[in-house]
Amino acid sequence: MADVIIKQIMVGGFEVFTYVVACPETRQAVVIDPAGEDEKILSLIREEGFKVKYILNTHGHADHVLGNQQLKKALSVSTCMHQLDNEFFSQKEVRELSAAELGLQPAEPADMALKEGDVLKVGTLEVRVIHTPGHTPGSVCYLVGGNLFTGDTLFVGSAGRTDLVGGSLDMLVDSIAKKILPLPKDTVIWPGHDYGDTPTSTIAREMEENVYITDFILES
C-alpha cells in the first residue's frame, strides 16, 4: 500500500492546484489551498471516503483561499495558516492593496496559526510546516514524507512572484536555498500552479533546470 495518497486538482479561474493528501490506512486527510470549485473538491472527498482533519493554506493570497469558508463549514474543520500571513493579511491597508492587485479579497484569519517546525498528525502521516517567506511574509511549504507542497514559493522551472505586497526576492531566494535545497534530492515538488512543462518535479531536477536555483543560488 502507498504510504500517502495525493490528489492534485486544478481549480478556479487562477488555475491553482488544490491538493487532498490522505493517510491510506485511516483515510484521514488534509486539503491544501482550496481555491474554488468547492463541490468538485467535496465530491472527491466523499467519493474517496476521506475524513478531512485540517484545511491548510500555503499563504494568504485570495486565489489560494477561495474555498476556505465553504469547506470549513461543510467539513467542520479548522483552517490553518502561518502566523505571519494571518497577521499580515488582517491589516486593512494590506487587504486593500492585495485586493487591488489580484481582484479578490485575501484570506480571512485562520482558526490555527502555524509556525516553523509545527507537525500536524493526520492518521499515520506527519505534515511538517516549513516557513519559506518571500512570496508573502508567511508563505510555507508542507512536507509529507518525500513530498513537498510548495504553494507559490517554488514552481516547476520557476518561483513565485515577489512584486506583490509583502513580497521579497531576496527572502524568496534565501528560503529556497536554506529550506528547500537541503531536503533529499528525490523529494517530489508539488507546486501551487501548473506553470512548468510537467505538473510535478523533484529537487534534483529543479537544481539542474530552475533559473532561480541555477542562477541565483548555485552560481552565487
Description:
The protein has 220 residues and is an alpha/beta fold. It has a single domain, classed as 4-Layer Sandwich (Metallo-beta-lactamase, Chain A), CATH 3.60.15. 29% of the residues lie in helices and 29% in strands. The chain has helices at residues 38-48, 68-75, 83-88, 92-102, 169-180, 203-209, 211-218, and strands at 5-11, 16-22, 28-32, 51-56, 78-82, 112-114, 119-122, 125-131, 140-144, 147-151, 154-155, 158-159, 188-191, 201-202. The strands form three sheets. The chain has a six-stranded mixed β-sheet with strand order 1-2-3-4-5-6. α5 (169-180) packs across α7 (211-218) and α6 (203-209) crosses α7. The radius of gyration is 16 Å and the shape is globular. The model has no long low-confidence stretch (mean pLDDT 96).
Instruction: Name the poorly predicted regions.
Output: none
Q: What is the architecture at the second tier of CATH?
A: 4-Layer Sandwich
Structural class: alpha/beta
How much helix is in the residues? 25-40%
Shape: globular
Alpha-carbon Rg, integer? 16 Å
The CATH topology corresponds to: Metallo-beta-lactamase, Chain A
Name of the CATH homologous superfamily = Ribonuclease Z/Hydroxyacylglutathione hydrolase-like
**What is the average per-residue confidence, as pLDDT, rounded to a whole number?**
96
Strand order of the largest sheet: 1-2-3-4-5-6
> What's the N-to-C terminus distance?
43 Å
Summarize the structure.
With 220 residues, the chain is an alpha/beta fold. The chain contains seven helices and 14 strands. It has a single domain (5-218), classed as Metallo-beta-lactamase, Chain A (4-Layer Sandwich).
